[in-house]
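TA notes. Do not distribute before section.
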Amino acid sequence: MDVDLPGAGEQIVLAGLGNPGPRYAGNRHNAGFLVLDELAARMGGKFKSHKSGGEVLEGRLAGRKVALVKPRSFMNLSGGPVAGAARFFKVGPDGVVVVHDELDLPYGALKLKFGGGDNGHNGLRSITKSLGTKDYFRVRFGVDRPPGRMDPADYVLKDFSTVERKELALNLDRCADAVEALLEKGLLAAQNAFHAG
């Protein structure tokens, strides 16, 4: 299956992944939530509790009708709220865009793709299981590999470092731009514009 434009012409479910609550707010694992906060600011709206199991903001972005979704569950149970929102808004898997942290990319690097494996990411594994397919869009925000022998599971639950935080607003802004480019121009154009090198 080869799809370029998410949910051509219909509603989009745009899910950002993270863990709920103030304890996790600045974690690398919450990059998806942070990007959605930037998009919500651009839309001029606020998230509201939704029966699908997430915090949802409906509106328009890049000329498309979107529902921004932040699951209220923990990361490894993200699939329920994302699939619930897709059902509620009558969106097929190709109308789902997931923004998440990615260990296999340098900090701040972006990659956009359609389909593929979960690469050990529990949030993606849960979403693939709940949607019954891996054919949905992903916007991957690079958080880099952990230093030395640190366990990746511990690393992603730590806040961005002081050095990383200096560039964080800029990187989140760029990732939000990439999401808008994906919705407006399609996957290939967004990849060409935002993939480095």
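Switch to the second chain here.
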Amino acid sequence: MTVTVGHVGLNVTDLARSTAFYQRVFEFEVLDGDDRYSFLGVGGTLLVTLWQQSVGTFAADRPGLHHLAFQVPDLESVRRAESVLRALGVEPLHDGIVPHGEGATSGGLFFTDPDGIRLEIYTPSIEGITTAAPDADAPTCGFF
């Protein structure tokens, strides 16, 4: 059997706010939706669905989603996302763009969405980034 991820569905508390956030940060287009949900994607391909059916904030200490990672083609794309996030007042976790681990050539940016859902934008090559991995003994995406 060959399997790929079709899309990821996220519960949000404020659909309009979350839709605007994901559109701005990831340059997603709204493929479908109403006042209860948004189907978001790129080039007509569905990637994320947002469902307004929750209260509170993301609970990182409960079983379930750890984080959602999006791969982009190059470091410049990660840098653009970092600029957008900072303009929105979102401070990246760690020290901005960081490697996936000590000595890793891949890495990215770790942050949370308006509901506290942990997100990552990464690229296979972060050549030119000199920031050390946040934890020399563990994968960066594992503990944030």
